[in-house]
Amino acid sequence: MSWLEETDLVRLDAPDRAALARLAPVTLPRGRSLFHPGEAAEGFPLVLRGRVEVFLVGPSGRDILLYAIDPGETCVQTTLGLMGGEPYTGEALTARETEVVTVPKVLFLRLMDDSDVFRAFVFRAFAQRMKSTMHVLEKVAFHKIESRLAEALLDLAEGDHVTATQAELASRIGSAREVISRRLDGFARRGWVRRDRGHVTLLDRAALARLARIAAES
After folding, report:
1. Is the pTM of this model over 0.70?
2. Mean local confidence (pLDDT), 51-80
């Protein structure tokens, strides 16, 4: 079965489907970079399995998670780069083992010109991505760090365990590592979590969920 069967692109006309079906997916390990700030977009990545996270990196080296690309979603920075010629301003890293197929720039631009189905797919995904990016900015601007941290811990947990450094948690919620350390200490004193190096155990998920709900409802 072609990878196209897993996406809305299966609705393309036969010649366009054939052009895309010739593209071979690749499997990337966790932590592999797809692009860096300043690079030009050379292709349109489609995530078939796994997750890619896109970070904005500041002059000081601090970064913030802008958005994640899950299967069926697209990268707004790549869309802007391919259509507007702008270089990347962020960095994309695989969050886990990820399967990706990349549509070359020439084919992407040809399909954008010729295919209503492909164009609608790109613009619909672009609109959804912009909406989620605005949601991230809204949370960073208006929601308390404690609520965002509780939400991130619950999102990242596998069972009751979160494998993430303080720097990774800081990037995810748009804060600083030192702030995350203080907030985790506070959670630990309340008996909500237990801290270890690069690892957090959730002891009171209900308390964290109540705190996270403040962010979701505000």
Report:
1. no
2. 81
Q: Where are the domains of the chain?
A: 3-140, 144-217
Which CATH architecture is the domain 144-217 placed in? Orthogonal Bundle (1.10)
Banded model confidence at residue 147, pLDDT cuts 50, 70, 90: confident
CB 54 within 8 A of CB 63: no
The CATH number assigned to the domain with range 3-140 reads: 2.60.120.10
Tell me what the mean pLDDT of segment 128-151 comes to.
71
